[in-house]
């Protein structure tokens, strides 16, 4: 199966924190959840992958190309939603879109209009009138409207109500259905992973604990059970028990 994304030995050093030797691969047509508690290194991983912060070392391949040598070309096929990005609060959504679309050769106005309708977004509204959940939906509409083959999303369901979250996760499943698009998204909401992730990458204190297909990921942590339970651990239990233990892989 062709990998749409390959991360090898990604390292980023900050005073007081180091992201160490992160490696994983994401095949075409799959959804990977990047999980870890706040401060574990999820956002640093995504930013370093995209060269938004310069990694100390490591190699990134996207679509079979070295990302750092082909950054502009690769980014034409990436849709990004990073949680801390905000827009000028008094601008209309239509004005922001008019600027954004100029950067993408394959911008699709029909797709954009479809997502505006699906997300109940009014292009004449101003950013200041949007809830946090609606801002996420607007950023997703932009990310999905230029034929992106890889979606990289940082906490995309944060701030959404349960119904909107489930709708978004269902949209993720539909987006990868044809096998041509993949999604990497970070989250601390384990139910999101249980509902839609094919693969899970788990980071703790800047180090990779495990990256595997979801069922194999869960199996690998079964020894964390505290009794002779017969049932498998949930993802939430895995996170809680591994975070309070010294367990490492």
Automatic annotation (TrEMBL):
Keyword field contains Hydrolase: no
Gene3D superfamilies in UniProt: P-loop containing nucleotide triphosphate hydrolases (3.40.50.300)
Keywords: ATP-binding, Nucleotide-binding, Transport
Matches recorded under Pfam families: ABC_tran (PF00005)
Taxonomic superkingdom: Bacteria
Domain ABC transporter: 2-230
Keyword Protein biosynthesis: no
InterPro entries assigned: AAA+_ATPase, ABC_transporter-like_ATP-bd, ABC_transporter-like_CS, ABC_Transporter_VariousFunc, P-loop_NTPase
A GO term for molecular function: ATP binding
This protein's name: ABC-2 type transport system ATP-binding protein
């Amino acid at each position: 199966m062709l990998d749409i994304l390959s991360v090898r030995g990604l390292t980023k050093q900050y005073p007081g924190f180091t992201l160490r030797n992160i490696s994983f691969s994401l095949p075409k047509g799959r959804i990977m959840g990047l999980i870890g508690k706040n401060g574990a290194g999820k956002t640093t991983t995504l930013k370093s992958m995209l060269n938004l912060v310069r990694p100390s070392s490591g190699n990134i391949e996207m679509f079979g190309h070295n990302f750092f040598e082909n950054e502009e070309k690769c980014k034409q096929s990436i849709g990004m939603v990073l949680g801390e990005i905000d827009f000028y609060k008094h601008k209309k959504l239509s004005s922001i879109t008019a600027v954004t679309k100029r950067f993408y050769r394959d911008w699709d106005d029909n797709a954009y209009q479809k997502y505006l309708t699906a997300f109940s977004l009014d292009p004449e509204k101003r950013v200041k009138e949007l809830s946090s959940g609606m801002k996420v939906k607007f950023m997703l509409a932009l990310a999905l409207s230029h034929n992106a083959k890889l979606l990289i999303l940082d906490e995309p369901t944060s701030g959404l109500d349960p119904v909107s979250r489930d709708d978004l996760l269902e949209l993720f499943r539909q987006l990868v259905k044809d096998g041509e698009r993949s999604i990497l998204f970070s989250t601390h909401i384990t139910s999101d992973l249980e509902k839609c992730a094919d693969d899970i990458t788990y980071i703790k204190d800047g180090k990779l604990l495990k990256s595997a297909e979801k069922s194999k990921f869960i199996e690998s942590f079964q020894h964390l059970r505290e009794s002779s339970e017969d049932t498998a651990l949930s993802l939430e239990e895995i996170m809680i028990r591994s975070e309070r233990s010294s367990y490492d892989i």
